[in-house]
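Fold this sequence, please.
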Amino acid sequence: MSDVEARQKAENLYSTALDLMADGKLEEAVRAYREALAIDPKFTDALHGLARALQDLQRYDEAIGIAKQIAELDPDDVLAHTSLSVLYQKKGMIAEAEAEGAKARVLGWKQQLKKG
C-alpha cells in the first residue's frame, strides 16, 4: 500500500469512528480510531478522537495517556492541554488540571498574537 493509500485508509477509518461516536457506539469508535492510528500513529485528529471516546467511556487514565501523546507530538496543541485539564479534573487531580488549563490559555494567547 502506498503512503497516499495508507493515509486515505486512515482518514476513512477516522470518518467511520466519528460516525460511530455520533451514534453513541463508543467502543466501536475506539477500535476504528486505533485502526487508523495503527496506519498513521501521528494522526493527531484520530488521537484527539480516541482521547474523547475514552473520556466518554470514563477510561480517564487511557485518555490521559493519549492526550499526553498528542502534547508530545505537538507541544503547541491547545486542545491536548485542554483535554488534559478536563481529564485531570474528572480524576480529582486539581493542581494538575489547573496547570494544564494554564498551559492551554497561554498557548491560545500566543496563537492569537501570531494571527494579530
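The chain has a mean pLDDT of 94. Helices lie at 3-22, 26-39, 44-56, 60-73, 78-90, 94-115.
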